[in-house]
Amino acid sequence: MLFAKTDKNKIIGFITLKLIGGKCLIDLIAVNPKYQNKGVGTLLISKAIKSFSDYKITVGTEAENIKAVNFYLKNNFKIVDYYLIFHRHN
């Protein structure tokens, strides 16, 4: 599922969601830098919550991404787990 926010017929932000095992996962959310801190991300999160109110909505992000962590906390998400994922780069 994809929701987008537009301004003057241009996409300024979007959110993608996946339904997995009875849960709704926020897969990706992005807002054009010119529109950040203006409520666009919160509007997209609110649309997702309203549209998938029958599902538990989850999201994952890097702990070092303080801006994203604070955004989700501001939008009433809670940290329920913390784990490490290792990537090998060639």
Characterization of the model:
- There is one protein chain.
- The protein has two helices and four strands, in the order βββαβα.
- It is α+β, with helices and mostly antiparallel strands.
- It has a single domain, classed as Gcn5-related N-acetyltransferase (GNAT) (Aminopeptidase, 3-Layer(aba) Sandwich), CATH 3.40.630.30.
- Strand 1 (2-7) and strand 2 form a beta hairpin.
- This is N-acetyltransferase domain-containing protein.
- It comes from Candidatus Roizmanbacteria bacterium GW2011_GWA2_32_13.
- Pfam families: Acetyltransf_1 (PF00583).
Morphology call = globular
Main β-sheet, spatial strand arrangement: 1-2-3-4
| Continuous helix count | 2
Count of extended strands: 4
SSE string, helix = H, strand = E? EEEHEH
What's the average pLDDT? 94
The CATH architecture can be named as 3-Layer(aba) Sandwich
Fold-level CATH name: Aminopeptidase
Strand content: 25-35%
Broad structural category:
alpha+beta
InterPro entries: Acyl_CoA_acyltransferase (IPR016181), GNAT_dom (IPR000182)
Organism: Candidatus Roizmanbacteria bacterium GW2011_GWA2_32_13
Pfam families: Acetyltransf_1
GO molecular function: acyltransferase activity, transferring groups other than amino-acyl groups
